[in-house]
Write a structure and sequence with these properties.
The structure holds two protein chains of two kinds. Helix content of chain A is 83%, strand content 0%. Chain A has 13 helices and no strands. Chain B is elongated. The chains are: A mainly alpha, B alpha/beta.
Chain lengths: 243, 332
Amino acid sequence: MRDSMSRVRAVIGKDLAEFRRNRLIVASAAILPVLFLVSPTTSILLVNAHGLASVGRRVDTSLFIPLLIPVFVPALLSSYAVIGERDQGTLEPVLTTPVSRAELLIGKAVAVFLPSVVLAYLMFGVFLAITQFATSPAVAAAVRHAPQLPATLVLIPLLAAWAIWVGLAVSARASDTRVAQQLSILGSLPPVALVALMSLHVISATFGLVAALTGALLAVDCAACLLVARLFDRERLVTGRQH
Amino acid sequence: MSLVSTGTGPELSAASGTAAIEVSHLTKHFGGRTAVSDLSFTVARGEVFGFLGPNGAGKTTTVRILGTLIAPTAGSATVAGIPVEPASAAQIRQRISIMPESPGLYQRLTVTENLEYFARLYGLPGRDQRIGAALAAVGLGERAHDLAGRLSKGLRQRAALARALLNDPEVMFLDEPTSGLDPVAAHEVHDLIAALRDRGVTVFLTTHRLEEAERLCDRVAIMNTSLRTIGRPEDLRQELFTRSLAITTLAPLAEPDLVFGGLPAVRGWQRGDPAGGQAVYQLSVTDPAQAAPAVTRALVAAGADVLSVGESRHTLEDVYLQLVGDSGEQPR
């Protein structure tokens, strides 16, 4: 067990070091969240100009958009995790070591999860800070007391985990990095679409429905770990063929 | 811990009895294509075993099967005394190392960080010491903190070799370890392989460089999907080619049949390619050491100006070309 944890930590450390030194990844991980922050923040800041009548709808939309950060960022990073290593020839040497599929995948998942979730909470924190300190008390209170706020805080890590497992599953089976990225983003969208429908009041976001969605995502995220481990076929990854 | 040292390792290891690698009727199909067919051989502990064959012959597939990366379609194998099967794969991987043809280093990590990562994946104690020793063994100590992406191809190859040394493997699979190296660097790798043999490490060497195989390997196997031959390079030469003497005279003999025909040790002769007016004769003999004095006396008696009399040496390349040359693949 100790060896296993050590190997998982090794994968996490190596992947995080690689992320930090890859300018493209740093740029993608920085630009996307900023873009997703600008739109809702601007929308809330403009409430005063348009009158308080529109505040409810704007808060609903603004609290949904930051949820795209824990979907897009991990989807992009995780889709590269396996196929990227295969393309640069580093996967085969790793697979010749005693590291197990589960250790490798959990390590890679955590290495994507940590920066994605930290970034999402950071951006969300910035958004909340701006809305609390740069808007009228009425708007600030509307944001602070929005029913979606606690749901958003809970859903950020769950959506990130979902996007990561989808990305890793695609990455383990795809034969092209760009296709893997596109499929990962597409595969990460269904739960986000559900959240969007609730935020926009197309579906009534009752406490029960939000709790059910949270529970379902939690269960799926746990099961996905096992499913992705099954999709991770050493032979296919090494030879490019199924046995 | 010393990664490279001299000593009596191979003898001690061989005494343990179990072969380092045993392969029995190994077969691998990819869809309708047969990559490896009915392969059987044994590699002794401490042996440097050359695995030769043209591109697409199944060498890398065999290494991947033995390294538990892919499963055989049929047949069985043991590596380091452990059966090659899914249940024991991690145990085998702990005791072997594989250096693929492509170094496969993380370009944005330093050489030390690359090795540190693998040392942790192997769960090795004393990582710093092992990394230092591995880098020293391949002469990369001074480049330890360089980014792998900034190293030349030869240095990357050395770093990959250092990585393969980290876990002090019982069996080391080296796939074209000198590919892309300059002669000096290749020579250093040869010395390293020789040192590994001295310590009792079994080295399974796939290579296209026949002079490398001839110089380093105790035995070689030549395959082209199936095994064509296996043995010591010297034995293979003797198996495939009749022993012969090469005679060079200043001018062609007037009646060579008369000179060579009466000698009991000579079974036949043919004229070789002449060079600069000299004449060359290839004599098929039973024993070159016994035939050479008699042939020399006969030539002198015939008044020939003898420039040289010597045993014809067939190289491993001759053996290789004899066995797989028709496939169109030329050795390097």
